[in-house]
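Entry 14. Structure prediction run on the chain below.
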Amino acid sequence: MIEVDDAGPIWIITLNRPSKANALTAQMLSDLADVAERAASARAVILTGVGKVFSAGADLDAAKAGLATSPDWERLSGAIAALPGLTVAALNGTLAGGATGMALACDIRIAVPRASFFYPVMKLGYLPQPSDPLRMAALIGPARTKMVFAAGQKLGAQTALAYGLIDEIVEDEDVMVRALALCADVAAADPVHAQKIKAMCANVQ
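Output returned:
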């Protein structure tokens, strides 16, 4: 249910469980973390999904069985954040719950117009993954982060764009075209040069 195209300089990682809104099982989460950890050789990595939802977060049955507190969530987002290549979340639809962490860890986030964003940990009685509120606050500020995590606010794509949670809104049929275009220069450049430029951007205060 996790598909990986790693044949070229741009790796494409696809969530493919559309009948369950790409909700993650323990095995899917572990597989994602494994792929992210071995993607250091990629010039760029694109995360996307099949269907109308990027991911509904943890599969509810799996969450009740312990997935909600799995260390693999942090392993996944940490591995993505540490990648030397450019990382793009090409969000084909709604992003919810623990799956938010992998998108927050990416360098760039683009989304289709119908996408919405929410993280219902207050209502469900779970704590968010530790790095998720920190990364979100770095993008949209602490007060708006509290609106999402504490007040349970759902953000539409236009609001998410205005806040800075996503960087572009792209029509459905163009989201992967745009993601690949964003990675084109990095894929063609000397990898050391590309990695130095990414590192310089990350170090801006």
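The chain has ten helices and ten strands.
Filed with the rest of this week's runs.
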